[in-house]
Amino acid sequence: MATTASFSPPLASPSRWSPPSRRLRLRVRAGSSLKEWGDFEDAVRSRDLPRALRFLQSVDVETPPAAAAAGAAVARVALPVPPGRDWEVLDACIDADDMRLVGRAYQFLADRGVLANFGKCKNIVLEGPREVTPTVLKEMTGLEAIKLAPKKWGLSGNSSYVLIGFLGGVSYLLNQGVDVRANLAAILGLVAADAMFLGGTCVAQISCFWPPYKRRILVHEAGHLLTAYLMGCPIRGVILDPFVALRMGIQGQAGTQFWDEKMEKELAEGHLSSTAFDRYCMILFAGIAAEALVYGEAEGGENDENLFRSLCILLDPPLSVAQMANRARWSVMQSYNLLKWHKKAHRAAVKALESGHSLSTVIRRIEEAISSDR
């Protein structure tokens, strides 16, 4: 991706002479002052996307059609946009109720050349074989299909050693005459209640304090984010706090909210094209693919698989079990290769999320990483 080289043009000097036939009659839009950028910052802080977007559109350079027809270039010029300031409009997307407005924010920045690589891979769903057997999947990714399947109980990698250590510790305490059975029963009861009523949110919140677990979540969500961005689907936000995810109705412990306008329109019309479905599935399985790329196998992604199955049932005709398995393998293979081609950008996204940066900063890091990788 190209770096953010273009924002808004500098304020032209009214004293510079030019031939009368080409002289620009500059009109500075009333109220466009440095003080007004404080209003923009306030809109971003309050997550008021409509107000933030209106302000950016007000300082954009325009040439009225009537003036162009008259042969005179009459420009409406605002003060120069401070470097990186226009990116901040993306941070106001998280509370937007209208996803079309989120889409307009991304399109506005893309039209200004800021989001140079937004949607650059949207046609990738048309490429490659459609039938992906486990053998083909291994040839293309070097991984067995089982490595790309979420672990239902989390007993893989380091988690299995944690379980063994926990059971060993309980056994040791019992052998030492310390009866922990009552406390253990209470803990297991609380865990069961958390799983039934809160979807495991409390356990997830506690687990996030374990650095390896937290980083795996970041790797997973960065995969969703980067793939959605490259496929041209606006991202509303990345939720990493389990309790915030619960309040926003997100299944699982974290989530990346993106929007596919084409898919939404087709579903409203009662049909779904293969292209739109494939693009959505690629983004859906990108978290699993990201984990496999970084760790050699996937642990998370069970909710992604459940969402995929529920969508397959809505198709007309619905996919068979064999067709669903093939579509899942195709999707994860495509996402895996896409992330492999943009490995540097994925690492940049993970690092930015790990540092607690906002969405606009994460996307800037993605753009900078792809630009420097060319």
From TrEMBL:
GO terms for biological process: proteolysis. Residues 8-20 have a biased composition (Low complexity). GO terms for molecular function: ATP binding; ATP-dependent peptidase activity; metalloendopeptidase activity. SUPFAM superfamilies: FtsH protease domain-like. InterPro entries: Peptidase_M41-like. It comes from the Eukaryota. Residues 1-20 are annotated as: Disordered. Coiled coil: none annotated. This is Peptidase M41 domain-containing protein. It comes from Oryza rufipogon.
